[in-house]
Structures
1.
Amino acid sequence: MIDTDASLTPALLRRDRQDALAAWADYLAGGLRSLHIDRRTVAEFCSTLYDGMVEALESGSGGLPQDLQDLLSSLSVEFAERGQAPSLTATFVFSLRHVLGERHGHAAMAAVGLQKLIDAMGLHSMDAFIGRREQIIRRQSQELLDVSVPVVPLWEGILSLPIIGTLDSTRAQAVTEKLLFEIARTGARHAILDISGVPTVDTQTAQHLAKTVAAARLMGAECIITGIRPAIAQVVVALGIDLSGIQTRFSLAEGLRYCFAQRNLAVAPKA
């Protein structure tokens, strides 16, 4: 440990730089080994953060310089994309307080400006981490939504849209938009909405389906709802949901047969 009676000035922190960085890297090495972050990367982060902290103390501005904010953000993004908890990013920064406390003793604890700066660094890293994690969640949610709304061409002029899972407002909007887009793109005149993968149908789900059917009808396409299982049929009747204005069939095959009949098509065995 260095002289604990000395005032912890930026000049003293610069003189102790190499030893402090080595101690910091050692302190972090065990906890970050499981994340497959090599020691060289850890050392680079520590070195740049340490220098940025000293420069911020020398400037006396009391805030975080932009380059230090950018570095903290990049560190947070690194951890967020590895799927780690936000506490890990804060621990990376706050561990510097522990290292300085061991090396400088009371002088480190009495350096109010240094303590405030480390706190600001830790809070900024957590904010950046949470912001990045929210971006990742939004992107993944949109990707899942796109995958969960596939419109499949079954025949010329006939589309199929299998719906799997609960049909909430967000998915219902995506279903309607995707279906109308494909109707406009392909000029289809029939669309089969297969709900065999929907666990249950309530009033809200039925309303979403009815709105989708009505929107498609305005574009000149007829929708057929298939996959209505006995349990769903009982729920629809018990809730008093009126689907009389919509063509319904038990299975996708029955729905496709109806579309063929409407288009004067028939499937026959090969002679």
2.
Amino acid sequence: MASNQLILFAAVLLSILAATSASVGNQCVPGWAIPHNPLQACRTYVVSQICGVGPRLYTWDMKRRCCRELSAIPAYCRCEALRILMDGVVTVEGVFEGGLQDIHMPHLQCPRQTQRNYAATLVAPQECSLTTIHGGPYCLSLVGSQVAV
């Protein structure tokens, strides 16, 4: 009798945990559906393509690694991961992660909005050809907006 109650209790507990993880799992926050400080390969790729900084010899490999990282993120969180790549995020522990900065050198300027506009197209067919939650060819949330960090 006690073992039947234990089995029933375990089944109820597992169903509660499954329901909780399903509702929490679809939130696009670092540590859940998005890794902490996501898309490191995309960071290198964006800076290389837009700012001309870094190795340009193996651009195809940087792009391939970026697309692989981006495809590992659920479609409904890809634009948020790219936003975190650009703007960063403060974690629950109060630590700032991510965020591409303006690159200013005497011979080079690489404005943040130019980087954001390019990052917004990483899901497009000519780049990684991935879907997003809105099904559009780019991440609308990154285009034409800029968050000061």
